[in-house]
Amino acid sequence: MILTCQSFAKINLFLKITGKRSDGYHELSTLMTQINLHDDLCMDFDSSGISVVCDAPGVPEDDSNLAHRAADLFFDRAGSVKAITSSQRVQIRLHKRIPAGGGLGGGSSNAATVLMALNSHFGSPFSKKELMAMGLELGTDVPFFIFGRAALATGVGERLEPVPDLRPYHLVLCDPGVPSCTASVYKNMDFRLTLEPEYNKNTGLNVLIREENFDIRSLMHNDLEAPACRLYPEIRDVKEEMGAPLCADVYMTGSGSSLFALFSRREDAMTGYQKLLDAWRHTGKRVFFSSFR
Predict the structure, then answer these.
(1) What is the CATH number of the domain that holds 131?
(2) Which of 11, 78, 241, 274 has an alpha carbon 20 to 30 Å from 162's alpha carbon atom?
(3) What is the domain-level CATH number for residue 256?
(4) pTM of the model as a whole
(5) How far apart, in whole angstroms, are the C-alpha atoms of residue 102 and residue 61?
(6) Do 152 and 206 sit in the same domain of this protein?
(7) Phi-psi region of 254 (alpha: psi -120 to 50; beta: other; left: phi over 0)
(8) Which of 162, 178, 198 is a domain's end point?
(9) Is the domain of 10 the same as that of 140?
(10) Residues labelled catalytic
(11) Range 74-83 average pLDDT
(12) pLDDT > 90: what percent of the chain?
């Protein structure tokens, strides 16, 4: 049996670092939403083992791949609650569209998609809450993709509160062509520089996100943008290149390196997308048109 799934990207509409824990992880407050940009996962259940095949250069195909790790984890846990024989395994073929190392959660989304697909295929031995707990073992963004809707994430990203009435937008998204290392970006962050009074005064955030047709634009900010730009000047350069032709503010998602601008009107987003596509046709930069899911 072969099952094909779509694995969607996410963007961080704001990301604030709120503290650092004794274990080295950072506490944060971030609003995330999935977008229509996606990878395709083809899962072959006639395989005799767990394997990953990917068409994107540089993406690992061994057991370090998050999709592979998700399958390993699922079969390990499912064996104790449901009879799954060693022959019931899966080959995962990944067709990648989401840029790797772009802050778009591609690997985490792949892992979440594998967990959910395997759970469904084998008769749902785990609840959604149990799947999210398993996902957290793989990465802090994985539970969000299992959660499956726009959410305010706090803690290390594991505490999720739905944002049901987020105003929809279209976006122009750019991959600058330089992958960002999340661990390096966090290490390069000066926590003192995140103490921005204007941003921190939004103490009514939990009230705001419950408003009907909530508009995020007044709160957009990313504490990781400055350290990412210090490490990867290309991000800063591409952000400056995007602003003028798009006539819009440009933001970085996650720990980088992808950049995006929001548009209320699809026509305006398509116009901006075409401008960048024409200008960057023979460069290493990739441009995408997408929308909130």
Answers:
(1) 3.30.230.10
(2) 78
(3) 3.30.70.890
(4) 0.92
(5) 19
(6) no
(7) left
(8) 162
(9) yes
(10) 10, 141
(11) 81
(12) 74
